[in-house]
Amino acid sequence: MSAPAIALRDVRFSYRSGPEILDIPELTIARGERVFLFGPSGSGKTTLLGILAGILTGFTGSVEVLGRDVSKMSGSERDAFRGTHLGYIFQLFNLIPYLTVEENITLPGRLHPARAKNIAEARAVAKRLGIEHLLGRAVTQLSVGQQQRVAAARALLGAPELLIADEPTSSLDFDHRERFLELLFENCALSNSTLLFVSHDRSLATKFDRQLSLLDFNRAHRTEAAV
Amino acid sequence: MVLLSLAWKSLRNRLLTTSLTVLSIGLSMALLLGVENVRVGARESFANTISQTDLIVGARGGSLQLLLYSVFRIGQATNNVSYESYLHWKNHPAVSWTIPYSLGDSHRGFRVVGTTEDFYQHLRFRRDRQIQFAAGRSPKDVFDLVLGADVAQSLGYKLGEKVVISHGIAAGRGIADNDHKDKPFTVTGILAKTSTPVDRSLYIQLEGITAVHIDWADGAPPMPGEETPAAKITKENMKVEQITSFLLRCKTRMATLQLQREINTYPEEPMQAIIPGVTLQELWRTIGYAEDALQVVTIFVILVGLLGMLVSLYTSLNERRREMAILRAIGAGPGKIIALLVLESGLLSLAGCLLGVVMIYGLSVIFQPIVEQQFGLYVPVQPPTATGWIYLGSVVVAGLLIGFVPAWKAYRNALADGLSVRV
Fold first, then answer.
1. Threshold 0.80, pTM exceeds
2. Which of B330, B344, B415 to mutate to test the interface with A (most CBs of A within 10 A)?
3. Is A106 domain-assigned?
């Protein structure tokens, strides 16, 4: 079997000379797994995602994403790696306001040609997410639910090996949330993507293969709590 | 290419700020190019005040002075040239044509120039333009007079009108006692506008100058009652004794320097010959500093335009932090963020320059005739000069360079924000 999607060992991180934010002895997520990651705000979720996406550096220990050692890559290698192999969905405001829906979806492929071969692929993803009819629209005309689907379509374009979603459903109402998750799962299964889903909404947790509490494997906060 | 289209769409999205920025750069660019055109126009109009004249010849004195009174009708000669000497050079084998001038009288502030038919035949300005008549004909008789276009316009004289000229060149009304009122002239022609000093003079025959001074002795008017009556005067019995200066055209350009030396060393009479182009350049250098000042001002105007662009890009960055985080998330490195903003500012300044060129071209087409008529300044309508291209290139380059300021800020933001911008 190939290397795990994510493998962390003895990872520590702090901003400048501030307190330690992360202290993770071990974390492994297998390929194709759908993982629910939760933890209160300030527990280091965003920091962890930044490290996994190759945007935050300056940690100690070993971080391997899709079998590649992140600390051994140069800045531009990390950008290219992220652009080619990772999908990322934010909580809100995922879209570039001056581009159309279609332009937003195809942008990763245009920045990194290895990501997606053609427009047809973007259409296919959009169709699977039920937003094909919106392709020509300006993103400012979309509802929040539609915006998040467009964001998902962009993240899923080119079937990235790892999809990171940072609270993508927290601005959606219940019905939309359920539907959005279903679509996300379907498409991850189709493209064989590993899904790391971050949320503090524990009601969603049971739908995932595995639930991880950041407080459980991040020792930085345990020591802080002990003090 | 992707970045270029991103930059373009981002600018288009902020249409109002973008167009205002482009407008301000465009206006300052138009101003800069306009000043450049006026500068070129002024220099050329100036250098082409007379053309095809190889030498200006007068009594020995300052060369600038000779140019000023012969061409611009400014100041006056200290000495005259005898008519014999003039005829000597006029008939010199190397000489193609001459135009004699006899100066010293005026009419209501405008100079009166005594000359011959040669003036209307041979004088050239702005390369190859010739004197044209708006009305009437050149003077044939002693008391015939032709008006320059400006004179005709400001005094409102018509053909057939009687004009009294005055001795001396006092500005304004002149001294009444010095009027040659016993010998009035008749307007027989009005010249078309030339936009040169030609427009600001009245022209009579050399014999006319002789005629009005016939009874004068030692610079004083004749006693009342002692005047020779005008009726007794004919062109034939007027003998021209002296002239002030003359323009000269050589048969070949090569002969010019040789002839100049000959005139300057003429043993019969102390004379000097100057090459108008050289002296015009000298003169331009002394009055040309005004154009430098103008240029400095317009360069500052350009700087202000570019600073406006800097401000608008820089202030837009805060609302664009989100956008930068998205770009980072989909794999755009800091280099691409920088490139995006530099491209935006490059596009803005390029668009500004294009607008400036279009504006100045349009304005030139519209205003050229008016400027020529009102200010006697011929501003050429032409693609940007070499200097103009240098300006355009520098502004685009400066725009690109200025783009690095917001780009650097965006880069710092992107590094600090990573993927997390709290909105």
1. no
2. B330
3. yes
